[in-house]
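Weekly sync, protein design subgroup
Attendees: M.S., D.O., the rotation student, P.L. (late)

Item 1: inverse folding check
M.S. brought a backbone from last month's batch and wanted to see whether the design step gives back something sensible before we order anything. D.O. pointed out we never logged the input encoding, so this time it goes straight into the notes. Structure tokens as presented (226 positions):
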């Protein structure tokens, strides 16, 4: 069972080793934080034992199993599960009910975040925040309309086509049509990263998309033609 052993340090419990959880756990470990890490994947846990001995495989996230790990002894517990909303919500509920001083939970949508907040968690939106920072940086730096991330993937900054104006994100559906990810919309100098599917595109709106270079090229060609 995990117990605090560095009295002058804040202790952290991390549940879930996806990209966000792994990066957070590694960063805290490198800061010599008092750290407990939980995940169902044995390989991921083995990797994390390079950074901390308190990395445990947990097959069930029910309250009893969580308490067996000692996570209730942490000052801050962070739920890094996002895609499985039901598991994220139940895990957050269990941790809050243990009386942990601060529970932080990752949300993947506004609705998800609202539920987590009502349970008593502090909510973070890592994907939304990353997209917002990226779009803002591209705008402030006056970056070109395309930034290549590697030999296959890039980010494009595109003014909407005339055909898109007064149409909703849902109706235009560029993600399905062109296999790209719409990460932000810039409208009247405001960056919108929590995108409402019923948002109507306006004249001079700018979209930021992430995707395969060939797919972005197809979208760019379509916008230029319309």
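Designed sequence read out in the meeting:
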């Amino acid at each position: 069972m995990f117990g605090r052993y560095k009295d002058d340090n804040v202790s952290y419990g991390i549940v879930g080793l996806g990209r966000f959880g792994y990066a957070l756990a590694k960063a805290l470990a490198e800061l010599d934080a008092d750290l407990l890490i939980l995940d169902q994947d044995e390989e991921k846990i083995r990797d994390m034992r390079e950074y901390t001995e308190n990395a445990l495989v947990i097959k069930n996230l029910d309250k009893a199993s969580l308490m067996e790990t000692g996570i209730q002894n942490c000052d801050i517990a962070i739920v890094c599960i996002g895609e499985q909303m039901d598991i994220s919500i139940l895990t957050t509920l269990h941790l809050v009910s243990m009386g942990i001083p601060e529970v932080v939970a990752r949300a993947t949508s506004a609705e998800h975040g609202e539920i987590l907040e009502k349970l008593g968690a502090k909510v973070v939106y890592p994907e939304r925040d990353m997209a917002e920072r990226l779009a803002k940086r591209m705008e402030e730096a006056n970056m070109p309309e395309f930034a290549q991330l590697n030999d296959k993937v890039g980010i494009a900054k595109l003014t909407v086509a005339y055909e898109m104006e007064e149409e909703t994100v849902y109706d235009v559906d560029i993600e399905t049509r062109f296999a790209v990810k719409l990460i932000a919309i810039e409208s009247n100098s405001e960056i919108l990263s929590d995108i409402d599917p019923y948002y109507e595109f306006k004249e001079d709106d700018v979209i930021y998309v992430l995707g395969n270079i060939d797919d972005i090229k197809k979208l760019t060609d379509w916008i230029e033609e319309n």
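Discussion: The domain at 11-124 is CATH 3.40.50.720 (Rossmann fold). The chain has two domains: 11-124, 129-225.
Action: P.L. to compare against the previous round before Friday.
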